Amino acid sequence: MSARKPNGFVAFIGVILRGINVVRIVILNVIFFGLLAIIIAAANRSAPLVRSHTVLVLKPQGELVEQYSIDPVQRVTAKLAGQAVQQVQVRDLVGAIKRAAHDGHIQSIVLMPGELRAGGFAALREVAAALDRFRATGKKVTVWAPQLDQSQYYLAAHADTVLVDPQGGVMVTGLASYRLYYKDLLDKLGVTVHLFRVGQFKSAAEPYVLDQASDQAKQADRFWMGGLWDQWMADVGKARHIDPATLRTAIDAMPEQIKAHGGDLAKLDLADHLVDGLATRAQLIARLRSQGALADDDGHGVRSIDMEHYLASVSPPRPRHASAGNVAIVVAEGEITGGSQPPGHIGGDSTAALIRRAREDSHVKALVLRVDSPGGEVYAAEQIRREVALTRQAGKPVIVSMGDVAASGGYWISMNANRIYAEPNTITGSIGIFGMLYNVPDTLAKLGVHSDGIGVGPLAGAFDVTRPLDPKVATMMQSMIDKGYRDFVGGVAKARHMSYAQVNTVAQGRVWTGRQALERGLVDKLGGLRAAVADAAKTAGLDQHFGVRYVEPRMSGFQRFMQGIGQSSMAHIMLSAGIRLPSWTAELARRAPELGLFGHAQAGKPNVYAYCFCSPQD
Fold this sequence. Notes:
By secondary structure, the protein is of the alpha/beta class. Helix content is 43%, strand content 19%.
């Protein structure tokens, strides 16, 4: 049978459809190759040149961190969505200031810290020291913000000129530590919490067994927070050339003085010499121009460059292996938990592996462990401490540099270093441990549910949350906690060349500032990361040409690719062209917090913790 020929109308429709398909393919190819051309151009485009008389604008947004906990993919998607990353690394901020100090093209720095969130004062002190070194070259630093909180102002005080908007001001509130207490609620729910601890000041788990802070906790908190507040007064007073006693009087009288100034906080700040002037953003630009800053290309602002593009424009870092050897830096930031954890967190396996990698690298001659941690699981901390000890045994010195917090488990991983550096306003100590178990038989009984059965063996069902706690288990747990405390204090005594009694006197879970810890023999010197690195190089016998590099988890190929895009000009080009990802793409991680549950310990397994809830609130 012969095939039927299509009639003329059907053939015409076929031609039209084929034409549409051809046009579709052409359009898709044009779009694809156009985007490919943009990507290739962005990847091959050289970094922007810094012209003479350029102002470096530092506008850190989000948390000030030692290490990103947001991975490269999320950072790039945030940029391409036109959103701030919400984290800024201390090393990047300090590095930009350091390079600008000796860059003849950079005329001055304008710092806008109004969107910076600082977790503590030690990291801010690192940045402040970099600003002081920049100013020592004769270049000026100007700070401007609509308003400043006391953490932001701590940094701003190190500028030549501090300006705030006439409608803003500096809000200094002091330090506080208020927590929620759950015992009454847990009693009503029939939940019984069993706390095992050593150290009369070890108050981390008190909210589960008390309805208010213990007298010992209040006593200890008042002491270390008072020390931090005194240090804030001393540092800000020195930077602003104000007697600390005068500054304290002005701050204490602020509520009454605001009323006396008609509610105008900015004018009060001006009268108290906390700021040097009041200015809108437009007035800031006019002021910079009057001081010699050149107009930008469109004539509306000043010739400037932001931190990200500046770091991309300056000369590349030193080669991976310096001729004199390297000082490696391993960052230990966040809570200490078991297993492998991503950057910005401390894992017993993963952080120990980084130290081991540095030790086994023949080019690394010394290690600096940068610690910013309130502690966590004891076993995970012990894994890391052992690697520190092995590194010293291998002949490579280890220097600890404490950041904002290095307490409890954070001190545990630090104690075996050759030397420990802390800032005066570091929070450290809290040498003590605790364990916690809970059971809910009364809760189930209220619902008409009861647990019964038999067990074979002396501890069978001992950790079943539906059963009352066996007194023998309580005795066992307390014995284990006592032993853990003896290990902690004994380990510190051996590492610090002190007697057990000497350490026990300053332990007991008590928290100290860095300066208070120095007076009690828990740290060796006051100073920041820069001082620790210099000490590490000197101890290792390196000359002045030594290199410094961070040892961090290896990224996947895709992560490296995305980081390369983020460090190139691609994001800037796309955003300038109006091409951006939907804003919701940058929110994916925040909208799926349940993914973090996969990293938690198994339910029903008792853990022993060296943890400190000791971050003050502004």
